Amino acid sequence: MLLRKSRSSAVEKALSPEEQRAKINEVRRIIGPLSEALPDFCSDASISRYLRSRNWNAEKASKMLKETVKWRLKYKPEAIRWEDVAHEAATGKIYRADYSDKYGRSVLVMRPGFQNTNSAEGQIRYLVYCMENAILNLAADQEQMVWLIDFQGWTMASVSVKVTRETAHVLQDFYPERLAYGIPYNPPRIFESFWKMVKPFLEHKTYKKVKFVYSDDVASQKIMTELFDMDKLESAFGGHNPVGFDINRYAERMKEDDKKMDAFLNSRGSTFSQQQPLVSLLQQPESSVSEAHSEASSEASSSSDSELPKPEGIKNLSENEIKGQSGCKNGVASGSEIQHDMIRKSA
């Protein structure tokens, strides 16, 4: 759920590959030395996500990227390990499923009714760990994840406005364009009240990614069959897989993934380990960056509703629409580029 309402236009720009390339280069000019200091983090795939999130506005995308770098330097999400968050995971309130969707996107299962702690900080830290893990396990040509939300045991008492707002802030500002779809499955009637409270804070693009699914509605069920192999999908979401969450098996998977993350960071060198040089770059006066951007731009120019959606109102996803959510468009960022993109393993 996103915190601030529609900071980008409801009408998404459609840019040609050449125009997208120009925007990516413009962001690199604006952030200056930061691009060279974080070459993986500032890859084409990464910058493209930030640009898409801000409707291809280079100035806004650059500011957003720099704020993400500041957050990662302080929060160190890539350094969170299973032992740090295991107590939050005990009930299975959030976990990465052991299957992906049909397009190789990681799946996070969320059961807010299974909340087991009172620490907002701890809950957010575990969410960040799960998102980092989901990104780590993406298929080579993917950069987004799917959230499946199960309302078993959910009541209004399960809602924490503070955690909801912080979740919104983290997802929107530090993981732009990482969410392909959020699927609330069989939300109870009382959820309408919560949805009405949250919806005004959703950006238009994110709102379109939320697809309500009901087990007794054929039209909405088609969303699940289009996205998932039903033999792998859990029975809680209408699939044929009866295996439920097991904390012991899940703990072993996460420990193995922690080793994968350590190996990756060691092989590349921790991008955010040299904190002081990065802080110095981030503290550069904005005027100097703007002046450099202005000069570069000059050279470049000279050289060349508030109701809960009902089942009958849900739009079925076509194969093209589903694939269209899968990542960078028009070949600006290739699969191999995404595969070696540090953001897949970090932001």
Automatic annotation (TrEMBL):
Q: Spans of biased composition, class Basic and acidic residues?
A: 307-322, 338-347
Q: Where is the composition biased (Low complexity)?
A: 275-306
A single Pfam family it belongs to is: CRAL_TRIO
For this UniProt entry, the molecular function terms from Gene Ontology, in alphabetical order, are: phosphatidylinositol transfer activity
Coiled-coil positions are: none
Q: Which domain of life is it from?
A: Eukaryota
- Record domain CRAL-TRIO: where: 82-245
Which intervals of the chain are annotated as region Disordered? 275-347
Q: What is this protein called?
A: Phosphatidylinositol transfer protein 3-like
